[in-house]
Amino acid sequence: MKAVERAKLVRSLRQESQRLRLLLFVIGFFLVTLTFVVISKPDALLFNLNGRLSVDQAPRSLLIREWVDADDAASRRSADTLATAANDPKMVDDDDAGEKANTNAIGTSEEEKRVLTSEPEQGKWEEEATASELLAGGGGEEGWKGEEGHQDHQHKVTLPTISNYTIHDATEDNDNGKQEAKDNVEWDKPLCDFSNFRANVCEMRGNIRIHANASSVMYMEPAGSKRDEQWKTKPYPRKGDDLCLSHITELTVKSSKVAPECTKYHDVPAVVFALTGYTGNLFHDFTDVLVPLFTTAIEFNGEVQFLITDMAIWWTRKYAVVFEKLTKYPLIDFNMDDQVHCFKHAIVGLHAYMEFTIDPLKAPHNYSMVDFNRFMRMTYSLPRDAVTALGEIPKTKPRLLIISRQRTRMFLNLNEIMTMAEEMGYEVVVEEANVNSNVAHFAKVVNSVDVMMGVHGAGLTNCVFLPHNAILIQIVPWGAIDGICRVDFGNPAEQMGLRYKHYSIGVHESSLTEQYPLDHEIFKNPLSFHKNGFEFVRQTFMDKQNVRLDCNRFRLVLLEALDQLNQ
User: Which whole-number Å values give the CA distances from 60 to 280, 288, 298, 530, in the listed order?
Assistant: First the structure.
């Protein structure tokens, strides 16, 4: 009897041991997988491990939020108040001054309309270097000829291999005190400009001290100066978006007669800006950081020092080649820095205008999206500057890139679309653009095609790599969001020198017909649902909708594209 009980006990212990080993194996596998993800694909985490915003929390467009939240317009500050704040030398809080611009019925303010309808001045020469001269590395007859002459001259970014830039420790140079006194001249403008509806920018020249530990940028007043300014700002161009800015470090920009001693002296300008925010989504990577950073920093031709608050190392690695073209110096992690940096010229914040665009009437040196498109092609060493007219190269088919999606706004009849396009004479390429996509690889694919098409979404941001005069076709989902789609991608594409086509799907092309009866109000009057707020718009018309293109109807769009490629 005892032997039987002993045998049962042994079996029980073995079973418990097996369960324990299995549990340890599962836990170990989970930890190994998590470690691998963190090390190899940190961008896939989208900041969630740090408590930061995920892509799903990011609005596809600030203008969408302005549109659907128009009922809150009464609580917003008027444009006159914002303009007054720019000249008011007192403490201004970014959260107070950064109210959203009022929008009209289609979600576009008067200021936005003016920017969107303005035409960039092409081929304009300035006494100072123009954007394209800087990009081309020189002027004269080999300088910018405008887009008409871009095929005759291959623009290349030329960065010196040896820099005049120096960083001095405070104890290394006894003459620095004398230099400070020499440079400490009065800056005759307000330190900050809060008048832009999208971004606050502070700029100053003189004796400037940036103290990261104190989150402060101090303009040292010359003797006899009566300046008394103090501003609060968050250097990320999503002004008025409280959700986004709540994750951004606030900086104090002020004039002062007393400040900590310099520990590092810099001979080049400083540009201070933030990451985090909505970065991690390709569209926001460009519209919130890369386009504004280009606009702000390209004029320095690499001779500029970046100080980044809320640093995301994986993000700077992802776009390392862009940073290498904009600055020749190591990035400074503002939040982890304990130095007092001294500069003669500093810019806090980035010049930003509309979604994914540059306003050439306001940008330094009249930069435009044509310049940015050219810069991206050069940065990634892309071979095609412009599309070639059909027939110029024998037996060459026009290439069509279809941007596919795997979770939302998918093409439900992708194979049918591909077959139709191939029968029309296109060589079809299908690629998916997501947060893990290799930017360099995707850039080369995009640059190799003549036509790119996709449903409204971040993947269309890759149009920055298209050659001049290529065609972008945006498929607009059902939901009365045509105006937003044009603002996000249509206008930027045209301002880059691309040809743009806008295809709005019909009710019968939407998967929403599987969720709602055809007589539902969502089909009769989709605009009325926008009053339910941005979350409803996103979830209903974006996150829960797929597309089944009517190939007979869409065929006409591809025929028009072929006709344009023949011109």
Answer: 12, 12, 27, 14
In contact, 473 and 503? CB cutoff 8 Å: yes
What single string gives the DSSP state of each residue in 323-391? HHHHBSSPPEEGGG---EEEEEEEEES----STT---TTTSGGG--HHHHHHHHHHHTT-S-SBPPPTT
Instruction: Supply the DSSP symbol for 281.
Output: S
- The Cα–Cα gap between 244 and 310 comes to 12
List, for residues 181-239, the tens digit of each pLDDT value: 445 556 678 899 999 889 999 999 999 999 988 899 999 888 777 788 899 999 999 99
Residues 6+ apart with CB under 8 A from 161: none
* 489 vs 356: CA distance, rounded Å: 8
346 within 8 A of 208, measured Cβ to Cβ: yes
State the CB neighbour count (10 A cutoff) for residue 89: 15
Tell me if 183 sits within 8 A of 207, measured CB to CB. yes
pLDDT beyond 50 at 52: no
CB 32 within 8 A of CB 38: no
Checking if the pLDDT of 46 tops 50, the result is no
Residues with Cβ within 8 Å of 224's Cβ and at least 6 positions away in sequence, in order, are none
- If you count them, how many residues does the chain have? 567
pLDDT-derived band of residue 27, with 50, 70 and 90 as boundaries? confident
Give the C-alpha separation, 111 to 197, whole Å: 9
User: For the domain with range 399-565, which CATH number is right: 3.40.50, 2.60.40, 3.30.870, 2.40.10?
Assistant: 3.40.50
What Rg, from alpha-carbon coordinates, does the chain have? 27
Which of 495, 430, 412, 487 is closest to 456 using CA atoms?
487
* Residue 8 confidence (pLDDT): 67
Pick from 208, 194, 333: nearest CA to 273 = 333
| Six-digit token string for 94 | 């970014």
- Numbered ranges of CATH 3.40.50 in the chain: 399-565
DSSP string, 133-174: HHHHT--GGGS---GGGGGGS-------SS----EEETTT-T
